Amino acid sequence: MQLALDFSAPRPASRPASRPTPPPAPLQASLPTGMDRRRLVGRRSLHRGAAAETQALRRYLARGWRLEARNWRAERVHGGGELDLILWRDGWYAFVEVKARRSLDEAAGAVTPAQFRRLDLASQRFLNLRGADFADRRFDLAICDQWGRMEILENAFA
């Protein structure tokens, strides 16, 4: 049996639908825009930063450092800086700033002089509250790229 189709024949008129069909939603409507997009990017950055902090902390703990505080904030009247990791070993405090960016170079360049001043003031306040004003201290920078590679720059701000 052979089927013959005649495409040149006039098409029968279609009946109007009882309900109009809405046009399909454009693809862009499902993507976040404006404030929602900023929240999404901010949340992603927050999680990336927390993962980098955890990775840095594990490295320090493996080297015998003891965690004293994580994400410690000084009061605003004392500079208001936040110290990502505060570690102690053999009479030394290490104040670690963790930066996660697309590349290690971007992360290394992410600490401004103003931010370092805030970190310095916050570290002084932390030591003051511990009664360890004259303790030996250093500032390390732990940098992480988008693939999870990490480098720790000891005494980075000397």
UniProtKB/TrEMBL annotation:
Keyword Thylakoid applies: no
Molecular functions (GO terms): endonuclease activity; nucleic acid binding
Region span, Disordered: 1-34
InterPro entries hit by this protein: Restrct_endonuc-II-like, tRNA_endonuc-like_dom_sf, UPF0102_YraN-like
Recorded superkingdom: Bacteria
UniProt keyword list: Endonuclease, Hydrolase, Nuclease
Residue ranges with Low complexity bias: 8-18
SUPFAM superfamilies found in the cross-reference section: Restriction endonuclease-like (SSF52980)
Transmembrane segments: none
PANTHER family according to UniProt: UPF0102 PROTEIN YRAN
Similarity comment: Belongs to the UPF0102 family.
Full protein name: Putative endonuclease
Naturally occurring in which organism (per UniProt): Albimonas donghaensis
